Amino acid sequence: MARFLWAGVLLLPVLGLFEALPSTWLPGHYANTTADATRFAKDYNTTAEQVLFYSVSASWNYNTNLTDHNSELQVNASLEEQAFTEAWGLKAKEVFPKEFLDTLPDPKVKKLIEKISVLGAANLPPKEREEISRGSWLSREITTSCCLPGRAGETLLAKSCARITRDMFNWPTKLPH
Ligand SMILES: *[C@@H]1O[C@H](CO)[C@@H](O)[C@H](O)[C@H]1NC(C)=O
Ligand SMILES: *[C@@H]1O[C@H](CO)[C@@H](O)[C@H](O)[C@H]1NC(C)=O
Ligand SMILES: *[C@@H]1O[C@H](CO)[C@@H](O)[C@H](O)[C@H]1NC(C)=O
Ligand SMILES: *[C@@H]1O[C@H](CO)[C@@H](O)[C@H](O)[C@H]1NC(C)=O
């Protein structure tokens, strides 16, 4: 866990621009060929790993140190995760339509690209997206760490419970159906 935290702390200050994904997280250029479909799937996997790690690190960081600043970092990371999903989803739909995917010999690549297209379909306006990331973050944190007994750091958790409960009434609660 120490290594995980350390890497998270290093990553966090580098990023955080709303919608401005680091260029290394954006999809490159791909042609509608079997080779490029495989490359797209591989690139997606590698990038998704980094984006998720960053987002989970921000969550962890806030969960262990409840400042407004860390809360904002966490919301920003979650928005970036959504921007990532959307950018790759749009690219998948644009370059690899269903008729093309049906010609791919590897069903694993086909299935992954289909999933990427579907996940990226949520083209919500930014404001609404922010509300959702706050909302889904809350439900995730509450069920995973806050009010479950027997976890480490009871005092800290009691503090976060009070804070989360307070924030829950102040934050927008529009959640995806
Ligand atoms: C979060 O993103 C907003 C919008 O880009 C930015 O102004 C703000 O500084 C970011 N917050 C942090 C803590 O990086
Ligand atoms: C991408 O990752 C998924 C889930 O871990 C895996 O099932 C799939 O085979 C991977 N695809 C490629 C092309 O690496
Ligand atoms: C908690 O986060 C703040 C930034 O919001 C930072 O200044 C402070 O050093 C952090 N505290 C710990 C114990 O990591
Ligand atoms: C690939 O794209 C080109 C031009 O965008 C199109 O003419 C061609 O039919 C596509 N090939 C397949 C297999 O979808």
Automatic annotation (TrEMBL):
Q: InterPro entries annotated for this entry?
A: Peptidase_M2
Q: Which GO terms describe its biological process?
A: proteolysis
- The signal peptide annotation in the UniProt record is 1-20
Query: Keywords on this record?
Result: Disulfide bond, Glycoprotein, Signal
Query: Cofactors per UniProt?
Result: chloride
MF terms in GO: metallopeptidase activity; peptidyl-dipeptidase activity
Q: Give glycosylation sites per the record.
A: N65
Highest taxon, organism lineage: Eukaryota
Q: Which GO terms describe its cellular component?
A: plasma membrane
Similarity section: Belongs to the peptidase M2 family.
What is the name listed in the Swiss-Prot or TrEMBL entry for this protein?
Angiotensin I converting enzyme (peptidyl-dipeptidase A) 1
Organism of origin is: Myripristis murdjan (pinecone soldierfish)
Give the gene that encodes this protein. Answer: ace
